[in-house]
Amino acid sequence: MPPAHSILPGCPATCARYGSLFVIVARFLDGFRQLGSLLVGSLNMPVLRFSIMTALGAALWVGVWGGRVIYYLDRNAYAVVIAFRHLSPWSWGTMGIILAVLLLYLHGGRRKPH
Predict the structure, then answer these.
(1) Which residues constitute the domain of residue 112?
(2) Global pTM?
């Protein structure tokens, strides 16, 4: 992967200014959570700064989503238990089918042509 500063010349200055905020906010955005690390890494963000911002973003993520889940479970515990009892056979069946298809796909891709 080419360094981001060779693709977009303004990226290093933007990363130096907003990189910490980007690392924290990226935890909440699917896709950016994975690619954000590559982006700021290619822009040479210091490892200690990246680690601190990632830890802070992860703590905020757990606080926001964990707090919402605990609040919801506290208010609707019985309804959640009933929903899981009804969904459990369907979810296990769906996951089994997905796993079987994935294994067949992966095994089929490794066959040698005769």
Answers:
(1) 77-114
(2) 0.51
